[in-house]
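Late entry, written up from scratch paper. The run itself happened at the end of the previous shift, but nothing got recorded in the book at the time, so transcribing now.
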Amino acid sequence: MAGELSGRRGKWDDAIRSVQEAVSLEDAIPYNEPPVWHHPPRQVLGALLLEAGRPADAERVYRKDLERFRENGWSLFGLMKSLEAQGAPSPLLPDP
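Output as recorded:
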């Protein structure tokens, strides 16, 4: 939450640092069904990186999330947005 609030205030470095900490915490939690941590911090981190104008970093975050949770719709959408922000054609849409 601290990361998202910092992002809304335009304090990108603070926001990204807070959410990176959340990602590290989530990574340390053993796998369980249902998941212990319900809020996906990598998706939040990717969105903050996009808003901060860092689409290449966002792409890496979304790709890492997709390694763990293949076919996650939110991460696929974030990956598409990060690629579009870098000027790459969308891999999900047909060529015009």
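Helices lie at 2-8, 12-27, 41-51, 55-68, 73-85.
(Scratch paper discarded after transcription.)
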